[in-house]
Hints:
Layout: H1 3-17, H2 43-61, H3 64-70, E1 76-78, H4 85-91, H5 105-126, H6 134-159, H7 183-199, H8 209-214, H9 218-231, H10 235-246, H11 276-282, E2 289-293, H12 297-300, H13 306-309, E3 319-321, H14 323-326, H15 335-339, H16 357-360, E4 365-369, H17 370-383, H18 387-401, H19 408-411, H20 416-431, H21 437-443, H22 447-455, H23 469-474
Antiparallel strand pairs: 1-3, 2-4
Amino acid sequence: MKQKDYKIYGLILITLFFLSSCKKALEIDPTTSYSSSNFWTETPQATAALYGAYTILQGAMGPGSVLYGEGRADNVVLNPLALSSQTLNLLTNNLNSSLPVTSWNNFYRVINQCNLVLTNTLEMKNRGLYSGKAAEYNSVRGQAFALRAFCYFYMTRIWGKLPVVTEPLLDANQNVNIARSDTTAVYAQIKADLDSAALSPIPASYTTASSTRAQFTMGAVNALYTDFYMWRHQYKNALDASQKIISNSTYSLASLYSASSTVDYNSNPALIDNTAYAQMFTKGFSTESIFEVDYNFAERATRSFLITVYGDLGFQPFFKASGYLSSKFASTDLRSKINFDTNSGIVKFFEKTGFVRGTQDDKNIIVYRLADIILLRAEALNKTGDIPGAMNLVNQIRARAGAAVYTEASYAGLNTDQIEDLILDERARELCFEGKRWFDLVRTGKAIKVLKPINGLSQTENYLWPINLTEIRLNPLLDQNSYYQ
C-alpha cells in the first residue's frame, strides 16, 4: 500500500496485463494515470478514471480470488505434476508473510483509484462541470463507492484490521504511514460506502447486458449488502437485501436440467457446453450474473489466468478437484459433468471441446450470481427459524441441476446447525471453484471442524492471513497478525 510499492506493482501490472480493460462491457477506454494540468476538466475523463478502477480490479482478482477463496479449503487438492511453493503452502496451511498472495497492494490500488474519482468528481461538480448531468455524476460516484466497499470487504475477510484510506494519494513517491483500524471501523466504512452507493442512486442497469453485469448496479450493491450482512451475522438485514435481488426480474437462474428434455448428456457430454448454465462460465454475462470481473483477450489481451490454477485440457494447472468434493455429487447431478472431468481436472470455466489456451484464457470471474444469493438467503432463513423456506430455496438449486430434491421427511428433526451443513454442502456443489468455499467455512465458524483433518487448521487466529513482509517494511505502523508474530 506504500507508494514505492504502489509504483513498482503498477508498472508490473501494466506490463503483464497490457493495460487490460473491460472494453467489451465499458464504452470508454480506462484511465489509470493523469496529468493535473489537463485531466479532470470534462466529465468523460472521470468516467474513464472510474473504468480504470475496474481495470485494476482485474489484476487483483485474476487469479488471486481463486487462491484466497479456494486455496486453503477442501474443494481442491494439489496437482502433483504442477507443484508450486505458494499453492503448496496454501493447501497445507503453512502461510508466511513472504508469499506473493499475502500482498494487499492491488486492492489498495483500486481503492486509490476510487478515492481519486470521488475527490475529483466532487470538485468538478463544484466547478459546474456536472451541470445538467446529475445522473452521470451519481452513476460515477455510486460505482466508485461500491468498488471501494467491495475492496475493503474483500480484504477485511482476509487480513482483518486494515488501514482505512479515503483520500487519494497523488504523488507516486509519497510516503504513507497509516496504522490499521480495527474491524469495527472497517465495517463502518464498508457500510457507509454501500449506503452512499445506494443513495447516489447507483443505476439499476446500463446500456448493454454485458455492462450491466460488468459494472456495479443497484443489484450488485444489494448482493454485496447481502454478503456483508451474512458475514456480520445480521440475518434480518441479509433477508431484506437478498429479497431485493430475488424480486428483480433482471436476474434469473440459467437453465441446465429439464425433466422433459430428451438430451442424454451421459452419452454425449460435449452437448453440455451448449447449456445456458455451462455458458455462464465460458461466455459470461448470463441472466444469472449479478457482478463479474470482465476479461477480454481479443481486444486487449486481458487474461484471468484461470487456466493456470484450473483446467486439465492438456495443461498442468495448480489444482485438481478433491475427492471430498466429488463424493458430494449424486450421479444425476449434471453439475459434476460441468465442474470436473474423470481425471479430477477442473474444467468448469472452459469449453469441453475446442478450447484454445492462447486466445480463450479470458474467462470472467463471477463475483456474485443469483444462485449464490439464493443460498445465502437460505442460510439466513434457517438462522431465523424458517427451515421449510430455507430448504425450498435449496431445492430450487438442486432441481435446476437434476439432483433429487429434499423432502420434508428427509430433513424433519434436523436442527439449525445440521440444516446449515446441508446448505453449505449445496454451496460447495453449486459454487465450487468460484472463490467462495474458504469464506463460507470461516463465516459459519466451521473452518476448523472441516479443515483440521485436512490441513491442521486448529486456531481461529489462523483464519486471518499474514500481512506481506514488504508491506510491513514499507509502513512501520503496520502490525503483523498475531498468529504470524
